[in-house]
Specification:
mainly beta; DUF5013; Jelly Rolls; 402 residues; signal; 3 helices; seven-stranded mixed beta sheet; Immunoglobulin-like; DUF5013 domain-containing protein; 3 domains; rod-shaped
Length: 402
């Protein structure tokens, strides 16, 4: 009886296993229906390390081809695949670089899709990258870095400028200053955005200067953007040589009389120390420009103290901040051309401007106009009798435009 029961159980188990196996085979056969005669997809190698470099109405796409020597071309799509570019590829045994330049782009952000293909038409998985093309809209947003102060010293031909602040978020990194040097050649000097001051030497007076600012909108940008040049006439600083009180001397007698440094004095002015010294007096411990006759000194006839200076066309004012003059003698402040200021008798015909000093302790101003840039003379002309006459400059001598 037990043997019969065991046989029945064994038979039931065997039938159940058969049914399960048959069902599994049927499901496998059903699956084969769907994959039968279907091609197996073979993907080509994709582009790695893709970067999009921005530019002026263009971009440059770069990537690495590190696998799959069968790759023959890359296709780049943008604007929802409405635009595309095909880039042929010649693979080597090593790592190759994909470079694709896309031009004539509008000023905006672009999303790019990159797919590689082999000769059989097998393609890679899609690689996405985005980048920016900069154009007119960006250009219109740029501003030139402002100049805060500037000064061109007409005696030393040195130009000093300081720049103000500007919005850095748009990518400004430098400013270029253009000028003409003393040889007539155009020069360009660049100052970085982190610098505020610039000093130039050898700058020609009377020439227009200009500057512009340079921008890189991002660190991957291929192109530099420039603002338009801003043109300007530099603010002129006229500095007479040895024009500040107390005045320096070139030579002296060790006591009182001497010759002023950087000023030309003629023989008529040198009436002290056996006609060796003149034009300078040590007065109360300070050096003064001087014309004097009498008190043991011979008369001064057309005595001259002057120097040359380069001046551009323009209107000017010269100021003697302080002087002392006695009642005797005639002294004129003179501006002229030539190699020497004219004698008193020729002032009306040969001087550009002249004006006499009144007696007393005063200051003096004189206006004049230069119609053509060049070298001019500025100085003092005196006729001082030996009966006791004097003229002393005891303050700064300033020259400025008006």
């Amino acid at each position: 009886m037990n043997k019969m029961n065991n046989h029945r159980i064994f038979t039931c188990v065997a039938v159940l296993l058969f049914v399960i196996a048959a069902a599994s085979c049927k499901k496998m056969d059903d699956y084969k229906k769907y994959i039968e005669d279907k091609p197996v997809i073979n993907y080509t190698g994709k582009v790695d390390s893709v970067r999009v470099f921005s530019g002026k109405n263009r971009v440059l796409i770069k990537g690495l081809l590190v696998s799959d020597p069968k790759i023959k071309e890359a296709r780049i799509y943008w604007d929802g695949r409405r635009d595309s570019l095909v880039v042929p590829i010649s693979r080597t045994s090593g790592v190759d670089t994909l470079k694709a330049a896309i031009a004539n782009l509008e000023d905006r952000v672009y999303n790019f899709e990159i797919v590689t293909y082999d000769d059989l038409g097998n393609k890679s998985v899609k690689v996405y990258a985005f980048g920016r093309s900069y154009g007119e809209n960006y250009q219109l947003s740029l501003t030139n870095r402002p100049i805060a102060t500037n000064s061109l010293n007409t005696r030393t031909n040195t130009f000093d400028v300081t720049f103000g602040n500007v919005d850095r978020t748009l990518g400004i990194f430098a400013t270029e200053l253009k000028y003409i040097d003393l040889s007539g050649q155009e020069q360009v000097k660049r100052i970085k955005i982190d610098e505020n001051a610039l000093s130039l030497s050898n700058v020609k007076v009377g020439e227009l200067m200009s500057y512009r600012s340079l921008y890189l909108p991002d660190t991957l940008c291929l192109d530099t953007f420039y603002t338009d040049y801003t043109h300007f006439n530099p603010a002129l600083k006229f500095e007479l040589k040895n024009g500040t009180f107390p005045f320096a001397r070139e030579a002296w007698d060790g006591s009182r009389w001497g010759n002023p440094a950087d000023w030309t004095v003629n023989a008529a002015t040198r009436n002290a120390g056996n006609n060796t010294y003149g034009g300078y007096e040590l007065r109360s411990g300070n050096g003064a420009l001087s014309l004097e006759g009498g008190w043991g000194l011979p008369a001064v006839v057309n005595g001259k103290i002057y120097q040359s200076i380069e001046l551009p066309e323009g209107n000017y004012k010269i100021t003697v901040e302080k002087y002392e003059k006695g009642a005797a003698g005639v002294v004129n402040l003179v501006v002229s051309e030539g190699t020497e200021i004219p004698d008193e008798a020729n002032l009306a015909t040969q001087a550009i401007a002249y004006s006499s000093f009144a007696a007393g302790t005063l200051s003096k101003e004189m206006n004049f106009t230069i119609t053509k840039g060049g070298t001019y003379l500025i100085g003092f002309l005196g006729n001082m009798p030996n009966t006791g006459s004097y003229f002393k400059v005891l303050g700064n001598i300033r020259l400025e435009t008006r």
